[in-house]
Amino acid sequence: MLVLSRRTDQQIVFPNLDIKLSILQVRGKVVKLGIDAPRDVSILRPETISVEELEKLGKTAEPGLDRHQLRNHLNAVNLGLKLFEKQTAHGMAQAAQDTMQRVVSELQKMDEAIGKARTQVKTVASSAAPKLLVVDDDENERTLLSGLLRMQGFEVLTASDGLEAMDLLSQGDLPDYVLLDMKMPNADGPSTIQKIRSDSRFDDVKVFAVSGTSPEVLGVQEGIEAWFPKPLDPERLIQAMSSQHTCKTMHV
Question: Please, are residues 132 and 149 in contact by the beta-carbon 8 Å criterion?
């Protein structure tokens, strides 16, 4: 157990919260606390923080962190600081020190929970790189786009048309996404979408369409997650797939 010292030359560090707590001065009924936090972290006095503000803090929690648990910790810290202030004002030195110990304990629990949540998110994110099947009859575009996507951490397969794409999908090692050019020989984009969506084995595969023509002109009304016009904006594509994959892995 961490024992809170009243000496002014010691700090309590919460590495995951990136916060340092110091007792700067003890004089009669007044205790000066120093809190060192990142610039983007707001520090509120206990008498100014409201229930609504605590709720907002809970909603901006670290991904993977139990928000109910976080709200409980924040509420306990809030109540503890208010009690500490009252006890100090009434000269209740020992009771105030005990209360501050409880506050520090809650901060430690928050720090540990955030560290655990970060570790879990990193483990899940790194355990399964998103898989992508690029389908395009233009070999140069297919090769360049595949190289760019691999540089972003995607596992990429390629196919030159819809027929080859269906052969790869039927082998069973399904990708997370199919990036499908709409105009190709042998089997074009719209017909390939119909084949994919008519087979229940591919229900979880997300299809992104790429074309210089609008979906209305090609008669594609459903069966795709998004439509990307040519010339393709790779950053927009990568952002779309990365955000969806993050949401998916968070719920595994």
Answer: yes
Distance CA 107, CA 112 (A): 9
Q: Would the pTM count as exceeding 0.70?
A: no
Q: Which of 48, 49, 33 is nearest to 88 (CA)?
A: 33
In whole angstroms, what separates CA 78 from the centre of its chain? 27
DSSP 46-97: TTT--HHHHHHHHHTPPTTS-HHHHHHHHHHHHHHHHHHHHHHHTT-HHHHH
Q: 128-250: what CATH class?
A: alpha beta
> E strands within the chain?
11-14, 19-27, 30-36, 131-135, 155-159, 177-181, 206-211, 226-229
**Domain ranges within the chain, ordered by starting residue:** 11-126, 128-250
| Contact indicator for 57, 74 with CB cutoff of 8 Å | yes
The one-letter code for the residue type at 9 is D
pLDDT digits (tens, 9 = 90+) for 148-179: 899 888 999 999 999 999 999 999 789 999 99
Are β-strands 30-36 and 131-135 bridged in parallel, bridged antiparallel, or unpaired?
Answer: unpaired
